[in-house]
Design goal:
Elements: H1 8-52, H2 55-81, H3 96-124, H4 132-159, H5 163-192, H6 197-224, H7 231-244, E1 250-259, E2 262-270, H8 277-294, E3 298-305, E4 318-319
Parallel strand pairs: 2-3
Antiparallel strand pairs: 1-2, 1-4
Helix pairs in contact: 1-2, 1-4, 2-3, 2-5, 2-6, 3-5, 3-6, 4-5, 5-6, 7-8
Length: about 325
Amino acid sequence: MLERLEEPAAKASRTMVENQSDVTRNITTFAMVNIVVAAAVMAVKYLAYMVSGSVALYSDALESVVNVATAVAALLAVKFSAKPADADHPFGHHKAEFFSAIFEGAMIIVAALLILSKAYAAISAPTPLQSPTIGLAINGAAAAINAVWAYTLISRGNAWRSPALVADGAHLYTDVVTSAGVIVGLVLAVLTGWSILDPLLAALVALNILWTGHKITLQSMSRLLDQAASPDIEARIRRVIENNGAGAMQAHDIRTRQAGRALFIEFHLVVPGMMTVQEAHAICDRLEDAIEAAIEGSEVVIHVEPGHKVKPEATGAVNL
């Protein structure tokens, strides 16, 4: 019996869908594990605070409470963004992950303000530390866990183009830096006997957290406003067009916008005026397949124009 051979384009499309499904499952799994890790680290850091009574360690523990809240938000955003396009959302739900990142930035800012309030009270009435060595050891263990997990989240988040995982990883990385600063500062407080260093250090930690929340929020808002792809990706798109646009005359008005894991690409393709619709369509299919194969997660829309629409001075145009 002869088997019907699957069309190459259909096979490539099916493979792409399967790959996207695998990526979505991986992201969801990481988002769930992220909640467990955040909760465990929060418990360890709070234990360090209870043992030592340190305001700086309290600030570190409070930031971990934020980590748990944002980890839950990231999971919800990842699940929602994975929903397929529908009549009300024809371009999909990819941007949901940006809302998670904005929420994370806002929660970080709230945590920083709470820490500043606690630090101010402790500066007004400083108290001696209790068992600081044990507290520092416990906090160091929590920081080590966070360091490994932050690296994992950022590397996997970038590989899978997940803004929620990358934002969580960036936040945890800041948490690691914060923990390192807290440990160094408390060691100095113990060695010098200056209890005032503890709340002052907490205040510095809060300011650092505040700056991180500010950066995450601004970056996510920019992407919600259809931020273009990076210059490197746009250069790759132009190279693919140049290598696969034989038969056309020019590609211009190339525009991109990032929406979560999806990258929408559109441009005008100028073809000879006497070219048939079928021939122009074949070139468009070739370009779409090549771009979507080279830029994972991309969705391409091409507007075909006749030869007199060439723009000789167009910035960023690809002449074929």
